[in-house]
Design goal:
Blueprint lengths: L3 H9 L5 H13 L1 H15 L9 H48 L1 H36 L2 H26 L6
Helix pairs in contact: 1-3, 2-3, 4-5
Amino acid sequence: MNHRPFEDWLLDDQPLTPEQNRDLQTHLRTCTTCAAIAESNLTLHSARKVTPAAGFIDRFQLRLAEQRKAARVRQTIGTLIFVIGGLGLLVWLAGPIVQEALRSPAEWITTAVSYFLFVLTSIQALNEATLVLLHIIPNLVSPLGWLMVISVLGGLGLMWIVSIARWTRPPQGV
């Protein structure tokens, strides 16, 4: 016997058509499970409704507002610490460079050009090394090995995304 439509009708609290009502009453005479659901539903609907104690809603809203305020304060303090730390790090790293630049622009320009050339040649060397490795490594690892490496990296990436999503989501509830 299919209980599904009858259970849905009993639990939905929606008005039934006369035909649905007749089918439901017929089914309730033969099915003890659905009759028990109907009896529980009637008992629940006839139960006395209890209003919350005086001031409950106000206390709840006050506690919720305090929690939100505390969260905003923690977030503001964290942001300030992050910004001040970043600025301190920037001053610490850029301080000697700024002092050198103000002392002698010629030395600064020479140093900047030498750094630029160093970075450029390093990128070229890294590019060549990468190309050599890209030609050698695929022959050393079997396709099954590559599949395992890609699967592990995909799993780690998925765990990273889920962790970031859970850490950045605000807490729910009270």
